[in-house]
Amino acid sequence: xxxxxxxxxxxxxxxxxxxxxxxxxxxxxxxxxxxxxxxxxxxxxxxxxxxxxxxxxxxxxxxxxxxxxxxxxxxxxxxxxxxxxxxxxxxxxxxxxxxxxxxxxxxxxxxxxxxxxxxxxxxxxxxxxxxxxxxxxxxxxxxxxxxxxxxxxxxxxxxxxxxxxxxxxxxxxxxxxxxxxxxxxxxxxxxxxxxxxxxxxxxxxxxxxxxxxxxxxxxxxxxxxxxxxxxxxxxxxxxxxxxxxxxxxxxxxxx
Length: 255
Prior knowledge:
The protein is an alpha+beta fold. The protein has one domain (36-251). Helices cover 20% and strands 31% of the residues. The protein is built from five helices and ten strands. The protein has helices at 46-50, 59-81, 98-101, 117-128, 144-151; strands at 36-45, 106-113, 139-142, 158-161, 172-177, 180-186, 197-202, 207-220, 226-239, 246-251. A seven-stranded mixed β-sheet has the order 2-10-7-3-6-5-4, with helices on one face. Strands 1-9-8 form a three-stranded antiparallel β-sheet. The longest helix is centred in the first third of the chain and has 23 residues, at 59-81. It is globular.
């Protein structure tokens, strides 16, 4: 969804007793995305289920659990890095991920630029002119090396808070800027190659995952001497206001 309201640039005042004048109102516009199907197949032979396999009981149960974890990693990668494909002519349908959705606040830095405290504050400054103060990004998503660089920022702007959220198991690094507080997360799926290492500033509550089908397991018909099945899901990313996010590319891989 896109709906942007400009702040006034002059003083507003109305004449006492005058009729109210009206101007055309703007309606929100709907963004779009497509659902993406991801499968994770499992095949376990009859023999494998009969013999004593190392470090597991029933290989079928083990592979189901292990491949659900793999499916979730594939979903996570797609939510960040996928780019839309219509699915025509036998091509798998593919959604836009976070990287593709961010189009307003995008900056390509010179290849090999170090990620400094100035860079982070410039990301905040870019958003300050585009969104309300309460919509400034609250999460910095980056590579591990970039997070290490943030941890080394001078001054007292970087701190740690207790992870009271049950989803979090460690202390969370937080950077306090003039525009608010920003949690710092390193993620393995953030683009990290020479000349294109990326840093994202994201407003977490403005992204959602919409499911057509949540991950489910289906056993498939036997066609040989093995048991077969797959995990399957169909879902899409919802971006509620991409202007509240920022993307900068081109940083040094070592921070």
